[in-house]
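Late entry, written up from scratch paper. The run itself happened at the end of the previous shift, but nothing got recorded in the book at the time, so transcribing now.
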Amino acid sequence: MHAILERLIDRINSAQIDPLPSENFYMEEVFSPETYAEILARLPEENKFDFIEHPDAVLPDGTKTRKLLDLTDDTILRLKPEDRQFWQQMKMVLVSNMLQKALLNKFRDRMNARFGMNWPELVTVPIFYRDYPGYRISEHTDAPYKVATMQFYFPKDESQIHLGTSFHLRENNRFQLLKTNPFKPNSGYAFIRTDQSWHSVKQIPAHEAVRDSLALTVYVKGYEYKSKY
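Output as recorded:
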C-alpha cells in the first residue's frame, strides 16, 4: 500500500491548479491499472450502501437517487470477507496524515488565509457514493466546516464521461459554467472550500448506469459527521 500512497501524493503534487472559481485540480491515472481494476472488482455490493436524505437526491415520486457508505473499520465488516483486507489497507492510505498533508499543502495559501499559520486539528473522512438516474445537486460551495474535498471517479469505461462535477463562477446572483470534469476511469479532482467554490452535478439521465465514486473530505475535527453531502 505504500506504493499506492506514493502514487497519490505524486499525482497531487504534479497536478495543475485551476484558480477559478477557487483553487481546484483534476487528475488522471490516479491509481495503477492493477489497483484500479481491483477497486472496481471490490466495490461494495448494492445492499451495503445506505440511502442519503437530501432534497436534491429525491425525485418528485419519492424515489431516492443517492446512496453512501462510510469507509470505517465498522462498515468494512459489512463487506464480503474476501474484500475486507483490501479496503482496510486502502482506508489506512486514504486517511493517512501524509495524504492529508499533501492535499492541504497544495492549497497552502488558501489554508493560511483561512486559519493563519496554525491550522486546527483536521480529520479526513472517506465515503463511497453511488448515484442513480435522476440524481443531481445544484450549485453549492459546501458547508463552512468542510476544508477540502478530493473525489475519485470509478466508472468502468468512458461512457459516462459527461457526468463529472461542474464548477461555476457566480456573478450578480447568476452562475456561469466554467467547466465540467470528465468522469473518466481512474480519474479524480480536488478543491479547497471557499465562499467561491461553487460546484454542481447535472441530473443523471434515466438511461445511465449508476455513478460510483469515493470522496475524501477534510473537516475541522469535531465537525466531521455534521454533513455527509
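The chain has one domain: 2-220.
(Scratch paper discarded after transcription.)
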